[in-house]
Amino acid sequence: MTTNENGNYMGKVAFVTGAANGIGRATALAFAREGANVVVADVSEQGNQETARMIEELGSRAIAVKCDVTRSEDVKAALSKTIETFGRLDFAFNNAGVEQKNAATAQIEESEWDRIVNINLRGVFLCMKYEIPLLLKQGGGAIVNTSSGAGVIGIKGGAAYTAAKHGLIGLTKSAALDYASQNIRINAVCPGYIDTSMMDRFTGGTPEGREQVISEEPIGRMGQPEEIANAVVWLCSDASSFVVGHALVVDGGQTV
User: Residues 125-165: pLDDT tens digits?
Assistant: First the structure.
């Protein structure tokens, strides 16, 4: 993937939440390889700093900001730091999220429901609420939100996560219509089973757990974070200039 294919990222600024590991880190690095400067935001300061260091090794500028996406004060402060440091915002990847404890719907604790929806859905709303005015000032830009295969199908034992990820697609589509005429493109990416630390927790980190997950992927393997990163960078690029309000499923055929 090159800037010739995707439009010019040189001098542009990308803001990535959930950047301390997994898909967020891979996407932050992908933006950096394209020549963008990157703001990495996460609650994990150590992982976040490591991502920033890796970006700088690629020759791009980076800043790491601690950010809990459920706190509007954190989101506003992180974006203020973005403008203070780089003077602009061009792309946002709202990726921070958590998995749900497996439980049948009636067995989900109210506190667990609130935790999942607060981070996975409300957190993205808060990010867009404060990113969009900055993009409008800049004259436009692109936002990608992380939904999931669970955003397009039901998942047994995962009602809270599934509801949040379905809701995120609706949020993305409505926001896309609100701002399409103002040169802001908003889309979502829907990963399948991706080989990350979150997936290790989901499978219990056992060979048996991994085999069960892989058995559900028609392609015969889990995806790699970089494969989602490539999709996100494309959705932010000039190559996808006519893609608006779309939920791009990248899941090895799992939800087909």
Answer: 999 999 999 999 999 999 999 999 999 999 999 999 999 99
Cross-strand bridge partners of residue 185: 142
Query: Across the strands, what pairs with 250?
Result: 191
| Rounded average pLDDT over 104-109 | 98
Output the CA–CA distances (angstroms, integers) from residue 158 to 146, 150, 161, in the order listed. Answer: 17, 9, 5
Closest listed residue to residue 81, CA positions, set 56, 57, 64, 60: 64
Mean pLDDT of 200-221: 87
Q: Which residue numbers are catalytic?
A: 161
Q: What domains are defined for the chain?
A: 3-250 (3.40.50.720)
CA distance 90 to 12: 6
Both tokens assigned to 101: 């404890």
**What pLDDT score does 113 carry?**
98
Predicted local distance difference test score (pLDDT) of residue 189: 98
Contacts of 35 (CB under 8 A, 6+ apart): 3, 8, 9, 10, 11, 12, 60
Q: What stretch of H or E contains 80?
A: helix 72-86
pLDDT (0 to 100) of residue 137: 95
Residues 6+ apart with CB under 8 A from 254: 149, 192, 193, 216, 217, 218
Does pLDDT of 234 surpass 60? yes
Tokens of 76: 């506003």
Q: From residue 211, how far is each of 23, 128, 187, 222 by CA, in Å?
A: 21, 37, 31, 10
